[in-house]
Design goal:
With about 375 residues, the chain is an alpha+beta fold. It has two domains: about 5-230, 3-Layer(aba) Sandwich (Rossmann fold), CATH 3.40.50.300; about 240-360, OB fold (Dihydrolipoamide Acetyltransferase, E2P), CATH 2.40.50.140. Helix content is about 25%, strand content about 35%. It contains eight helices and 21 strands. The strands form four sheets. Strands 6-7-8-3-9-10 form a six-stranded mixed sheet, with helices on both faces. Strands 13-12-11-14-20-21 form a six-stranded antiparallel sheet. It binds adenosine-5'-triphosphate (ATP). Keywords: ATP-binding, Nucleotide-binding, Transport. One of its GO terms (cellular component) is ATP-binding cassette (ABC) transporter complex, substrate-binding subunit-containing. This is Iron(III) transport system ATP-binding protein. It comes from Pelosinus propionicus DSM 13327.
């Protein structure tokens, strides 16, 4: 049976510095839960608190409803995989994986059986007699993963496990990790600063900034419905464009960009005022480039052809630089200096308060 993890109002201090101040989150049984955020936001600190490497200055950490604050790491029944593999260089693959079982005094016959089983799951059973020095980075990380899960932990923690691998291997290994996690159905907390990795691998993602959770959601909602401008610009590319609300009676209104382009929005919040300044977040791929008609007037400054897409660096009439991405099949590459019209689908945009940058309105449909 998989377990849940509850982090309740936890506080972490290093000396006089408070790194995490009252953070709460819930990880569901069997969930693949990712902590994502820029360097220094406190991801590793939180992970180390869960396993017990770091002290906790306030709040509670619960596993399956039981408070584990005072339980030493050894007795928490958690496995951890680190960025630098941390496997023993003087032991073969098999010995590395068997180590944790020996420490737990599992009978020798059972050890062989369990090691073979796990090596098959992580698909390195053919390498069991190799020494780590003769393994690739990906294979070493499979050993580290096998070593973490062979003890049948209740919780698997991973701290940037793919950071030392090259781009192609990262993709291969993230797929392997996801499928192994599914197969053994273990509650997993994964730390990364790589947003694509987080989107690809997670059931849910917590976006962290300065020790504070900004949003906890599915990868799709994090991408399509960011709750503030930090999330919208941290995940993928987002253009934040100045605009104004034009409101009549009722709950409908228009967003008016500089130079008059108007987009109709439904279900606007009552608190929104006529004439209020806003920031409109538009993903580069949500623009439609036209040669004439309704839209934002802009000029193409430069472009980069990327095979599947073409990436345009564009300047709006008000001088703001934005980015626009078009599919390969959309049209021929448009020359630099061309004047274009950019139309946006109102359902694909997110609108934020100009000053405090929290969500004001959301687009209707997905
Ligand atoms: N042992 C320590 N003593 C003092 N400050 C620390 C210690 N460990 C981490 N910090 C500080 O705590 C903050 C959070 O660090 P943490 O390593 O948790 O961030 P992170 O989000 O995991 O970053 P990265 O992606 O770079 O690993 C940083 O400001 C860091 O400098």
């Amino acid at each position: 049976m998989s377990v849940s993890i509850d982090i309740e109002e936890v506080v972490k201090k290093y000396g006089n510095d408070t790194i995490i101040n009252g953070l709460s989150l819930h990880v569901k049984p069997g969930e693949f839960f990712t902590l994502l955020g820029p360097s220094g936001c406190g991801k590793t600190t939180l992970l180390r608190m869960i396993i017990g490497f770091n002290s906790i200055e306030g709040g509670k950490i619960k596993v399956d409803g039981r408070v584990v604050n005072d339980i030493p790491t050894n007795n928490r029944n958690m496995g951890m995989v680190f960025q630098n593999y941390a496997i023993f260089p003087h032991m073969s693959v098999k010995e590395n994986v068997a180590f944790g079982l020996r420490m737990r005094k599992v009978p020798e016959n059972d050890i062989d059986k369990q090691v073979d089983e796990i090596l098959k799951i992580v698909k390195i059973d053919h390498l069991k007699d190799r020494m780590p020095i003769k393994l690739s980075g990906g294979q070493q990380q499979r050993v580290a993963l096998a070593r973490a899960i062979v003890i049948h932990p209740e919780v698997l923690l991973m701290d940037e496990p793919l950071s030392n691998l090259d781009a192609k291997l990262r993709v291969e290994m993230r797929n392997a990790i996801k499928s192994i996690q599914r197969q053994i159905n273990i509650t997993t907390v994964y730390v990364t600063h790589d947003q694509e990795e987080a989107l690809a691998i997670s059931d849910r993602i917590a976006i962290m900034h300065n020790g504070v959770i900004q949003q906890i959601d599915s990868p799709k909602n994090i991408y399509q419905r960011p709750v503030n401008t930090f999330v919208s610009t941290f995940i993928g590319l987002s253009n934040l464009i100045d605009a104004e609300i034009s409101k009549n009676q009722g709950c409908n209104a228009s967003i008016v960009f500089d130079h008059g382009y108007c987009v109709f929005m439904e279900n606007i919040k009552d608190t929104v005022k006529n004439g209020q300044k806003i920031l409109v977040s538009v993903r580069p791929e949500e623009f439609h480039i036209r040669s004439a008609g309704e839209g934002l007037k802009a000029t193409i400054k430069s472009s980069v052809f990327l095979g599947l897409t073409t990436h345009y660096f564009v300047q709006l009439e008000n001088g703001q630089d934005i980015q626009v991405i078009q599919d390969r099949d959309e049209q021929d590459i448009i020359p630099d200096g061309t004047t274009i019209i950019l139309a946006v689908n109102p359902q694909k945009i997110n609108v934020f308060h100009y000053e405090n940058k929290t969500t004001l309105i959301r687009g209707g449909k997905e």
